[in-house]
Amino acid sequence: MSGLKQDIGLVQGIGLLSTSLLGTGVFAVPALAAQIADSGSLWAWPLLILLVFPIAIAFAALGRHFPNAGGAAHFVSLAFGPHMAKVTGWLFLSVIPVGLPAALQIASGFWQAAFGLDQLGLQLVQLATLLTIWFLGMRSAGSSANIQVLIAILIVAMVVAIWWKGGITPATIDWPAVQTLSANSMFNALAVMFWCFVGLEAFAHLAAEFRNPERDFPRALLIGMLVAGGVYWGCTVAVLAFHAYGGDMAAAASLPSIVVQLFGSHALWIACIIGYLACFASLNIYTQSFARLVWSQNYEHRPKAWVAQLSRSRSPLNALTLVLLCSLIASLAAYYLTLPLDALIVYANGIFVFIYLLCMLSGCRLLKGRSKVMAFIGSGLCILLLIMIGWKTLYAIGMFMVLWLILPKGREQSVKAE
């Protein structure tokens, strides 16, 4: 799709995806995985990467052959027609009322841990976060990518510092024997750990803004996924080495507690700021992706509409403004209605997996060769994940059915990858 500025390179793409996958999970999930599977979590991360790999390959192939700001909705449009594309697009946008308030709550929580802010202070942090994302949106995606590369470097540096100061080396890692692993605990750990790899669908919206999407988008996606997986594994090693999990300790406090133990209490604010930046990076890529979806849908059908206009830097600033306003309203509503954080996260995760499934099914129709095989395998994995989530997927299924019924139908179209 023409219009958006193409200024994302390979390194920037790796930074965008890796920080999107790390997000809030890098501080909490390693401790949760260790609590469920103990040292078996060391084997769980490589296994999870192998399981997610088919989904990543299919996403990489779709982004390579069909780069478009519409992302998942565009892939579904090519495979199943415009009506299904509208449903997918609105389904993705339905994450805003549940997912973004949850992410803002987690991000502001790091400020509370570091500086003891009250509720008004937390609300101001959330507002400042949205304003910062808006200012970044005034420029092209390449500007956000440069910042997220720096955030990725900070996260990696923190893990390296923990290993160095803690005397952790590959020789000191106590790998459990494979025959001693519990299948049940490994399965439960993988169910939790999968959410660290939610973010591929958001990254797909940026494919059209790569300088060379056919070459760099697949590489950035796969390398970024491996970088994020390596960081998660490195954090898990540290959590196990210092036994910073379980008991009364909150999962998100595991890495900060290790930092304090190694570097002193004065280093707590450093860990909290890095945790906030990781959350900010994930929030940034999601809101930017939502904006590109809103822009692309209007650009195709109502090119003169306000939300279909680009800024001077050829970024969808008007669409981003609308998305951020909706995010602010949803965040305030979640606060005043005292909606529980875990419920918000679960409902958002169900939608993400459902969108993954729609993309994998699109890949089954659009792709050829090994990529098509990966899409079939990815479809099976997504169905398995939906079964694992159970009744909590009803929000996603209900939203899908409502959108299917109320959205107007259009002409069908289908294409194949060359």
Q: Can you characterise this structure?
A:
- The chain is mainly α and 418 residues long.
- It has helices spanning 10-22, 25-37, 41-65, 72-80, 82-93, 96-115, 119-137, 141-165, 183-193, 200-203, 213-241, 254-263, 268-301, 317-336, 341-366, 369-389, 394-406.
- The protein has one domain (10-406): Amino acid/polyamine transporter I, CATH 1.20.1740.10.
- It is built from 17 helices and no strands.
- The radius of gyration is 21 Å and the shape is globular.
- Mean pLDDT is 84; it is low at 412-416.
- InterPro entries: AA/rel_permease1, APC_superfamily.
- It is a multi-pass membrane protein.
- It is found in: Cell membrane.
- This is L-methionine/branched-chain amino acid transporter.
List the helices and strands and how they pair.
Elements: H1 10-22, H2 25-37, H3 41-65, H4 72-80, H5 82-93, H6 96-115, H7 119-137, H8 141-165, H9 183-193, H10 200-203, H11 213-241, H12 254-263, H13 268-301, H14 317-336, H15 341-366, H16 369-389, H17 394-406
Helix pairs in contact: 1-8, 1-11, 1-13, 2-9, 2-11, 3-9, 3-11, 3-15, 3-16, 4-5, 4-15, 5-13, 5-17, 6-7, 6-13, 6-14, 6-15, 7-14, 8-11, 8-13, 13-14, 15-16, 15-17
Transmembrane segments: 43-62, 90-114, 120-137, 149-166, 186-208, 220-246, 266-286, 319-338, 344-361, 373-406
Main location: membrane
Subcellular location: Cell membrane
Short description:
This protein is an all-alpha fold. The chain has 17 helices and no strands.
Q: How far apart are the first and last residues' alpha carbons, in Å?
A: 18 Å
* Helical residue percent band: over 70%
**Tally of separate domains:** 1
Instruction: Classify the beta-strand content into a percent band.
Output: under 5%
| Tally of contiguous helical segments | 17
CATH topology: Amino acid/polyamine transporter I
Largest sheet: none
List the helices and strands in order: HHHHHHHHHHHHHHHHH
Level-1 CATH class name: Mainly Alpha
Going by CATH, the homologous superfamily would be Amino acid/polyamine transporter I
Q: Please give the number of β-strands.
A: 0
Low-pLDDT segments: 412-416
Mean pLDDT: 84
Structural class assignment: mainly alpha
Question: What would CATH call the architecture?
Answer: Up-down Bundle
The geometry reads as globular
Radius of gyration: 21 Å
